[in-house]
Amino acid sequence: MARDGSFDHAAQAYGLAAQLARRFELAGELAFCLRHQAQCLFDSDCVQAALAPAQESLDIYTRIEPDRGPNYAESARLVARIKDALGKSGEAQNLWTELRAIYDIHGSEASVEECDIRLTA
Q1: Exposed e or buried b for every residue in 1-37, given b needs 16+ CB within 10 A?
Q2: Which CATH number characterizes residue 47's domain?
Q3: CA-CA distance, 42 to 75, in Å (whole number)?
């Protein structure tokens, strides 16, 4: 957790924003808020709590970003990292494989290297 609790406060704020986005049926905004809420939870070592919003974010981006763009990739990466941290690396492998292909197409060498490391771990 951040020394000043900023991740906790940010997670709460993103959670409130997600509630509003859900209420007004703003799928892209909802996915964005959920992803950032999950990232804050993950960064504050609330790994298990981060999984649900991260997975929901990924599910939404799967539906609204059929081209598997950057928002999808960031959510998929977060879900994969969470699953790895929870000892569910087998479940994360498919995401790392898919991400490697996405990052390779977009020429992101550092991201391809991260995927290679995760896939060989």
Answers
A1: eeeeeebbebbeebbebbeebeeeeeeebbbbbbbbb
A2: 1.25.40.10
A3: 13
- Amino acid identity, residue 115? C
Q: Which tens digits make up the pLDDT trace of 93-114?
A: 999 999 999 999 999 999 999 9
pTM, full prediction: 0.92
Instruction: Evaluate whether residue 102 is within a structural domain.
Output: yes
Instruction: Provide the domain limits for residue 107.
Output: 6-120
Tell me the C-alpha distance between 79 and 50, whole Å: 9
Backbone angles phi, psi at 100, to 5 degrees: -55, -45
Is 1 part of a structural domain of the chain?
no
Q: Report pLDDT digits (tens) over 4-56.
A: 567 889 999 999 999 999 999 999 999 999 999 999 999 999 999 999 999 99
Residue 113 domain-assigned (yes or no): yes
